Amino acid sequence: MNWDDVRVFLAVARAGQILGAAKRLELNHATVSRRVAALEEAIGAKLFHRLTTGTELTAAGEQLLATAERMEADMIAARAEIAGESEDVTGTVRIGAPDGFGVAFLAPRLGALTARHPGLSVQLVPVPRSFSLSRREADIAITVDRPTEGRLVAGKLVDYTLGLYASRAYAAEHGLPKSAGELRNHRLVGYVPDLIFSPTLDYATEISENWTTDFAVSSAMGQMEAVRAGTGIGILHTFIARGHDDLLRLEWAGPIRRSYWIVYHESMRPTRRIQAAAAFIGELVEKERGAFV
After folding, report:
1. pTM to 2 decimals?
2. Residue 156 host element (H or E)
3. What DSSP element (H or E) covers 154?
4. Helical H runs in the chain?
């Protein structure tokens, strides 16, 4: 097999369309189609179903994908070995993270990573409901669940807590509930249930089995701002909320405990920029681990 054809095959498989792969590879549409056709002819099997919405792997394509990713991993490892002991960390690393951790914690701190490695470019993107490291939608992902499928390297980053909060202005105007039963007399800020991307984030019933959201926001930072504005009482990330003096924690509601995991594709393990970024995020969390309790 021609490696250039395999590389094009991987791009189409990950993009789910020939046009998207062409843009990613900086090739024209016809060249990508020709490379895929050449690979199909060399293998003697059809690799993609062409659909009006894009492409879909055939059974043969799925089988080749695993082999192609191993080939890619070997190429990455070979490049890393040839590079030897060079201290330079260059290129682009894309980090996907939930908005609470990504915006409130990583965004103010990742500048120090580019200062440490001037040749490195960092992209921070939100983790959507459907997310694929194998499709290279990010190089590193921060997740709230340990992945159970795919060729992924995963490690627990940190345990964190959430608590029940209200603004001082809300408390002055409406008072504060002293038990879960009294929450029904208050306006509650929460999440949009059908838009949460993991069952792990469906945690309101851990505060009250009868939790009824009056104002729903589909982002952790949006919920934070709504609670701060006095819209109602909400469940917020402790590591974010404790930085705002205008918020009061309702101590009778015990903490909700969850975890963040750092994940990247196995084929990227030898890549210096991935290892540098993952190590840096680990350092940040370790330095401020107490803030997440």
Report:
1. 0.73
2. strand 152-167
3. strand 152-167
4. 3-15, 18-25, 29-43, 59-83, 99, 111-116, 168-174, 220-228, 238-241, 272-287
Q: Which one-letter amino acid corresponds to residue 192?
A: V
The CATH number for 224's domain is 3.40.190.10
Half-sphere exposure of 41 (CA within 13 A, CB side): 8
Integer CA distances (angstroms), 193 to 199, 254, 286, in order: 9, 22, 32
Q: Which domain holds residue 40?
A: 3-83
Q: What is the pLDDT of residues 10-20, one digit of tens each?
A: 888 888 899 98
Going by the DSSP 8-state scheme, the letter that residue 255 receives in this structure is P
Element (H, E) at 260: strand 256-265
Residues 175 and 223 reside in one and the same domain:
yes
Do 138 and 203 lie in one domain? The reply is no
Whether 9 and 77 map to the same domain: the answer is: yes
CA separation for the pair 63, 45 (Å, rounded): 11
Q: How many domains does the chain have?
A: 3
pLDDT tens for 129-148 read 555 665 667 889 999 988 87
* Residues linked to residue 159 through DSSP beta bridges, in sequence order: 259
Last residue in a domain, options 83, 107, 123: 83
User: What would the two tokens of residue 133 be?
Assistant: 């490291």
d(CA 198, CA 144): 8
Q: Please state whether 276 falls in left (phi above 0), alpha (psi between -120 and 50) or beta.
A: alpha
Asked if residue 274 and residue 146 are part of one domain, the reply reads yes
For residue 139, how many C-alpha atoms fall within 13 Å in the half-sphere facing its CB? Answer: 20
